[in-house]
Amino acid sequence: MHHEYIDKYSRLDSVVHKIDSRTKMILSFLLILIITAFNNFYPVLIIMPLIVIAILLSKVPVMFFLRRIAICLPFLLFLFFLPFSKAVLLFSKSASSITIITLLMSTTTFSGFLEALKFFKTPKIFILMLSFFYRYLFLFIDNIHRMRHACDSRCFSKKQSFKPATVSGMIGNLVVRSYEQSERVYLAMLARGYNDSG
Amino acid sequence: MIQVRNLHHCYPDGTKSLNGASLRIKENEFVALIGRNGSGKTTLLLHLNGILEPKRGSVVVGGLELKKKNLGEIRNKVGIVFQNPDDMLFSATVFEDAAFGPRNQGLSEKETDERVKSALNRVGVFHLKDKNPHHLSLGQKKRVSIAAVLSMEPSVIVFDEPTSHLDPRGRKEIMELICSLNCTKIIATHELELLKYCNSVHVIDGGRIVHSGSGVGNEILKKYEII
Lengths: 198, 227
Fold this sequence. Notes:
The complex is a heterodimer. By secondary structure, chain A is mostly helical. Helix content of chain A is 71%, strand content 0%. In chain B, 33% of the residues lie in helices and 26% in strands. In chain B, the strands form two sheets. Chain B has a six-stranded mixed sheet with strand order 6-7-8-3-9-10, sandwiched between helices. The radius of gyration of chain B is 17 Å and the shape is globular. The A-B interface holds A 5, 109-111, 114, 131-132, 134-136, 138-139, 181, 184-185, 187-195, 198 and B 46, 49, 51, 72, 75-76, 79-80, 82, 84, 86-93, 96, 100-101, 104-105, 130, 132-134, 148-149, 152.
């Protein structure tokens, strides 16, 4: 099955990719803190050109970033409720933060990211949950795809396969299957000596 | 090595899955456990390293009775390779998955590293060590899940349907790999062609072992509706 991975571009070879993941993580969080803490445009204007240079150096396609930034387009709706400059400030802050996080995630492999979290003494359970999330999110998407295929192959039109009863049945099935899978995963972990306090 | 006596088990919904199963397995034996779907194969396997605890009857592994206080030691001795590798492989890389068991055993990073390397080499997937398990083919995932158990160096390995969903070539390769492992091996299967690899066969039906021997004839298979 094909879908986009969070760290899709993380295995490219560039100067930015070579920087230690811990350094990148600290830098990213510091920059986001600075951008969000001040109530004016200066931090964005100073930091973003540097980020753009880093993006160009990283060889990650610019379109990838633009698509990610599109996530914060709804913030532009505030134009209707807030004074113009405030709404633009809100948008630029969120867009910059997303760009920085995207740059961090697309130049660091997910395992590198987890390693860095481990180094900063993040609680073990939190790291385990993140690694589960990364692993099983895609399995979950695969399940949806497979179910859709199986459903579409027995329906003659899109209208039939999008009936509320069909969709709700699928969601129910997915929830039950995921729940059961989580039980089986936990058993498999126990079988390899995992204990809750570990 | 393993002795199961009069084992009973009942799932919370009232389904009786084991109904007085008894079984003896010698050291270094290669055992097949065959039976129909729902005959109690998996339930029996889950008792062998204490995932399920005996409600009635007993399980003894290497002289240790299966009880809460012995759980750690028994799980060190008996490894289970589950049917669906996706249930076992949950880390971001193959290496991390193979290191999960040894780390739980309390080994140092250096020892874990050595164990993982030798286990991955043993099953021929060392070159995939930095890959995300999700990107692997089913055959590769099966190999990695075997490595994930091998790295704990257990003396008994239990395989639940080791060849399910594999193509004929993949089946042969996995079975040859399993044969080459130097420990007590137990496979639960309903694929009769796998019996040729084993030196002892137990047939399970309705939660009881109904036949044990070095082979099994068609009459018995027919009697218990396996074929």
